[in-house]
Design brief:
heterotrimer, A alpha/beta (250), B mainly alpha (286), C mainly alpha (342), A: 250 residues, alpha/beta, Rossmann fold, 6-stranded mixed β-sheet, 5-stranded antiparallel β-sheet, 11 strands, B: 286 residues, two-stranded antiparallel sheet, 11 helices, binds adenosine-5'-triphosphate, binds magnesium ion, membrane (chain B), ABC_transp_permease (chain B), BCAA_transport_permease (chain B), transmembrane helix (chain B), Branched-chain amino acid ABC transporter permease (chain B)
């Protein structure tokens, strides 16, 4: 077996006395699409916040490619090759779609982004990445519009596109289809499946048909803990998963 | 020698209580309305001036202690209804700019009404004497100041902790929606809280008038001190404002006997050190 | 908190860069025209100097407020210390013009680095409060060091050295018009420099931070570094402006480093138009000229500034530049319409 790209040990995130993430041990194999599912409030987004450094964890350890990144700030983890999209769309609303993507690409430039004298033309690479991404997301026609004027579905696609622009080794997508209309969902599904070819993907998703069709491994979370982990087939047949979801619904 | 320090510590407590009254108003408004009032220092100086005018006209300090905060609160209430409430939805930057405009207007109008030179306010006759404790002598007014401000603090605490109004304010500071759901007119609660917070600044202005007089250019200094207190004590916290207010007052007072020119400087230096060591203040959480 | 009450009104803040991306050359030409015409139009060359000096300070403030979204009440620290450092260096070390200006810029930049590094440890309103408190602190330091700064009396007899190279005098700056020449050249350079900074990778990132700091951090930027560098650049420009102001007045008053100076620079920035370099010129020009006209007639004219500030926030958030722009847009729209009709 290859060594995991991302590994957590006993990861815990507490909001006061409440443990949103409670002793999670996760293991992501490189080159796979790994999904995290679970009822509302299970702690999936909180888990992402821990992995990307958005929140400071209360306990445990995070290893990326064998390196301890537990104390690394969010921007430092991007530099190592992690990038994420947000469940609640978070764009540069008043900047153009192209600029959103270009800024996301430039985010990996580290100190070079502090260059305050040379014109942007001297950093062509990021603009090229943005143009490529515009094509791939089918947003070229809207490239110059402010991101805030896109339709909801297009904003979700841009949200994911910004994460890809960093060319990360591990891509973390938090419910990319959330709030999308049925018309847009196939585009997103295709996009994610394609991503699986070049990146390792950690995916939070409520849409079961997407999860079951593209995942290599599925982790089911409930109340901050891992309930079940396995192949789509195994998870589908697990009784505990059904009770977790039904219990929530009842 | 020890008496000097005791004297300065008592002075510091008095000063600290004034700082507390200013900051708790600021904090109360911020907690519920999520609104930053940069005109707070201006309302303080308005309190001082109204005290001056009342004392000059009637010779009665006690009347001014009642009237000036009421008048300042009323002005705040009117301002809230006409202007402030229109900017709650704007980013903080814009709120700050509007209240900065209000502060400028109050300052300039004060100069128009009372002139550019500060006015001194006599100590009320009843409290002109000194209190003796063995060898130790202390001005009556300063003792009164500590006691009276402490009473106000207790009353305010009871208001916030033991009344329906207080419960609404506290609930509203957590989530305004909850309060709206309770069927309370949230805008009325906002107006009253804004007026109350500003009236506290006015009251602080009255209490400090016999000590420092009324000066049109006091606003920025007061605002600066209030910010030091809330940066150290945390916004939205009654206890933090009290502890930090007293601390700042005592530090400033003690420094005044050691290094007179540097006493004001010291409180800012103290704030800088606190921010370096504990960015979220002495009592704050990350 | 109720999201309705706290979310910024998105639609209100226009993409500040869009304007200039469209026609930067036109605004640069307009700026040059104003700089050339200014001493002919305003009553005195001294007044023209004052306008450009404050316009420089506003450029610095705009970099923070307009492009990074940082509302700093600390600008007086950099302005005042620039004035003091240049004046002291000229008085005690007899340094020349350019050395004095460089020292002032360095002092302003360095102090801004410190102030920025300290203040950005907190965000939002705490950040703003910290900048204000630090200005108070700087004021008290200047007040306490009265042996150096002259305290309340200010620092008198600040020289205005000639433009000299290697001890050889090229220009004398004693006449106001000659001094205006120097100020104008410096202003044009700073303006073009600011343009470059804004068009750089760094500048584009500042806009991202202003728009959505959390996302900027999430895509990999260490936003602290950007904010501190923005502070340092802003402080350097503002310090330079302070030094020129001291040379203009032959005097460095304590009021340079007082909170009202920060407020004045901020008000000029907002009235001119945040996020617009040309607006810096508009804002400084309007307020300086207004002050000159009104202060003699009515000493309480600052009252109007308070009213104007409120009015701008309530009705014209783009400031004068924004107003001009929407006027232009409406004109263009009308013209297009008549063309289509025809
Ligand atoms: N900032 C916070 N403070 C306190 N509690 C929080 C905070 N953020 C999240 N929580 C709580 O933590 C729990 C986990 O939330 P999280 O957003 O991780 O769930 P999730 O699995 O992503 O749910 P969903 O499917 O709805 O997105 C929830 O009960 C939530 O209320
Ligand atoms: Mg979630």
């Amino acid at each position: 077996m290859t060594s995991p790209l991302l590994e957590t040990r006993d990861l815990t995130l507490a909001y006061g006395a409440f443990h949103a993430v409670d002793g999670v041990g996760l293991c992501i194999q490189p080159g796979t699409i790994h999904s995290v599912i679970g009822p509302n409030g299970a702690g999936k987004t909180s888990l992402f916040h821990c992995l990307t450094g958005e929140r400071r964890i209360s306990g445990g350890q995070i290893l990326f490619d064998g390196r301890d990144i537990t104390r690394r700030p969010a921007h430092g983890r991007v530099a190592l090759g992690m990038a994420r999209s947000f469940q609640i769309t978070s764009l540069f609303q008043n900047l153009s779609v192209r600029e959103n993507l270009r800024l996301a690409a430039q985010g990996t430039a580290g100190w070079r982004a502090l260059d305050f004298w040379r014109r942007l033309d001297s950093h062509r690479r990021h603009a090229a990445t943005a143009d490529e991404m515009l094509e791939r997301l089918a947003l070229t026609a809207r490239a110059e519009l402010p991101a805030g004027t896109l339709s909801h579905g297009q904003q979700r696609i841009l949200e994911v596109g910004m994460a890809i622009c960093a060319r990360p080794r591990l891509l973390l997508l938090d419910e990319p289809t959330s709030g999308m209309g049925v018309d847009d969902i196939p585009t997103m599904t295709r996009l994610i499946a394609e991503l699986g070819r070049d990146h390792t993907v950690l995916l939070i998703e409520h849409n079961m048909s997407i999860v079951m069709s593209i995942s290599d491994t599925i982790t089911v979370m409930n109340r901050g803990q891992i309930l079940v982990e396995g192949t789509p087939q195994a998870v589908r047949e697990d009784a505990r998963v059904r009770t977790a979801y039904l219990g929530e619904a009842a | 020698m020890l008496n000097v320090y005791l004297f300065q510590i008592l002075n510091g407590l008095g000063l600290g209580m004034i700082y507390f009254l200013i900051s708790v108003g600021l904090t109360l408004i911020f907690g519920l309305l999520n609104f930053v009032n940069f005109a707070h220092g201006a309302f303080f100086l308005l309190g001082s001036y109204l005290c001056y005018t009342t004392v000059t006209l009637t010779g009665n300090f006690w009347l001014s202690l009642l009237l000036a905060p009421l008048a300042v609160g009323l002005l705040a209430w009117l301002l809230e209804r006409s202007l402030i409430r229109r900017i709650y939805h704007l980013p903080h930057t814009f709120q700050i700019l509007v209240t900065l405009g209000i502060a400028l207007i109050i300052q300039e109008v004060s100069i128009m009404l009372w002139g550019p030179v500060g006015k001194s306010v006599p100590t009320p006759e009843l409290l002109r004497g000194i209190v003796r404790l063995g060898h130790f002598a202390y001005p009556q007014y300063r003792l009164f100041l500590i006691g009276f401000a402490a009473l106000v603090a207790v009353a305010l605490w009871l208001l916030l902790e033991r009344t329906r109004f207080g419960a609404l304010v506290r609930a509203g500071s957590e989530s305004t929606e909850t309060v709206s759901l309770l069927g309370t007119n949230i805008f009325r609660l906002f107006s009253i809280t804004f007026a109350l917070g500003v009236a506290l600044a006015g009251l602080a202005g009255v209490l400090s008038a016999p000590l420092r007089g009324a000066n049109p250019f006091l606003g920025p200094e007061i605002l600066g001190v209030a910010f030091v207190v809330v940066v150290i004590g945390g916004m939205g916290s009654f206890g933090g404002a009290l502890a930090a207010g007293l601390m700042v007052g005592v530090v400033q007072s003690l420094m005044a006997s050691l290094w007179p020119q540097g006493s004001s400087l010291m409180i800012y230096a103290a704030m800088a050190v606190v921010i370096l060591l504990r960015p979220y203040g002495l009592f704050g959480r990350a | 908190m109720n999201p309705k009450l706290t979310t910024p009104a998105r639609g209100d803040s226009r993409p500040a860069n869009a304007i200039f991306r469209r026609r930067p050359a036109a605004t640069t030409l307009a700026m040059l025209a104003v700089v050339i015409a200014l001493p002919l139009v305003v009553p005195s060359a001294t007044l023209a100097c004052e306008i450009l000096i404050f316009a420089m300070a506003v450029l610095g403030c705009n970099l923070l407020l307009g492009y990074t979204g940082l509302l700093s009440f600390g600008q007086a620290i950099f302005f005042g210390s620039g004035a003091y450092v240049a004046a002291l260096a000229m008085i005690h070390w007899q340094v020349g013009l350019f050395t004095a200006l460089l020292l002032a810029a360095a002092a302003g930049g360095l102090l801004a680095l410190l102030v920025g590094a300290l203040a950005i440890r907190r965000t939002g309103i705490y950040f703003v409060m910290l900048t204000l408190a630090l200005t108070q602190m700087a004021y008290f330091i200047a007040y306490t060091l009265s042996d150096w700064t002259g305290g309340d009396n200010g620092l008198l007899d600040v020289p205005r050295p000639p433009v000299a190279i290697g001890g050889f005098t090229l220009f004398d700056l004693e006449s106001p018009l000659a001094f205006y020449g120097l100020v104008a050249v410096l202003f044009v350079f700073l303006y073009l420099g600011a343009r470059r900074v804004i068009d750089s990778a760094f500048g584009s990132t500042l806009l991202a931070i202003r728009e959505n700091e959390a996302r900027a951090a999430a895509v990999g930027y260490d936003t602290r570094h950007f904010k501190i560098l923005a502070f340092a650049l802003s402080g350097a420009v503002t310090g330079l402006a302070g030094a020129l102001y001291a040379m203009l007045l032959n005097f460095a008053p304590l009021s340079n480093i007082e909170l009202p100076m920060s407020e004045q620079i901020l008000i000029m920035t907002i009235i001119g138009g945040t996020g617009s370099l040309f607006g810096s010129l508009l804002g400084a020009g309007t307020i300086v000229i207004l002050g000159d006209l009104l202060s003699a007639l009515w000493p309480r004219w600052m009252l109007l500034l308070g009213v104007a500030l409120i009015a701008v926030v309530m009705f014209m958030r783009g400031g004068l530049w924004g107003g001009l722009e929407s006027l232009g847009r409406r004109r263009a729209g009308a013209a297009r319409k008549t063309q289509e009709d025809a």
